[in-house]
Design brief:
Blueprint: H1 3-19, H2 35-40, E1 42-44, H3 50-64, H4 68-74, E2 75-83, E3 86-88, H5 91-96, H6 99-107, E4 110-121, E5 124-137, E6 140-155, E7 158-170
Parallel strand pairs: 1-4, 2-7
Antiparallel strand pairs: 2-3, 4-5, 5-6, 6-7
Helix pairs in contact: 3-4
Domain SnoaL-like: 54-167
Organism: Luteimonas marina
Signal peptide: 1-24
């Protein structure tokens, strides 16, 4: 599938996820399955999206733990990662450029989940997460407000991440 077709497919999937009648069905809160998250975060994840959220969370945990083998396995080969006005257009490009530095930054950081919403429709799901990262930079505490959107696609082996958009700012 070429880049234009992939982009159109993702745009269509996101549009369908927003207006899909499946989204109108009763949802079981993700917070019910993760009591610790419920106590400190606003979580809205219907049962249909729980497996996709688990993959997103596994990706983030693996990145923070420096498990780049798992990080690579959870990304689709043609993943598109957007961050700070830049783009990495494949798993190979991300793994060869920013994966190691992202893992190094996250290794000593504490991630506090603030809000998470996810939806699934057909073979696509999206996960939107707002969190606060607490880290050290030059020996001084650093707090970063972070937002993350992931789009995942269901394949025979499970969910794979086909798009990530990260945005962050330091808290003053």
């Amino acid at each position: 599938m070429n880049a234009v077709a992939t982009t159109l497919t993702l745009a269509l999937a996101l549009a369908l996820a927003v207006v899909s009648p499946a989204m109108a069905q009763a949802t079981q809160s993700h917070a019910q399955h993760h009591p610790a998250a419920a106590a400190s975060a606003d979580v809205d994840v219907p049962a249909a999206a729980e497996a996709a959220v688990a993959v997103a969370e596994r990706f983030n945990a693996s990145l923070a733990n420096g498990d780049l083998t798992t990080v690579e396995a959870l990304l689709a080969a043609d993943v598109l990662i957007l961050e700070s006005g830049g783009a990495e257009r494949s798993r190979e490009e991300y793994m060869g450029h920013h994966a190691a530095s992202d893992a190094a930054f996250l290794k000593g950081a504490h991630r506090q989940l603030l809000r998470q919403r996810a939806r699934a429709a057909g073979e696509f799901a999206w996960v939107g997460t707002e969190s606060e990262l607490h880290a050290q930079k030059d020996g001084k505490p650093l707090t970063v407000q972070s937002t993350e959107t992931m789009v995942l696609k269901q394949i025979a082996d499970g969910w794979r991440i086909v798009h990530i958009h990260w945005s962050s700012r330091t808290q003053r």
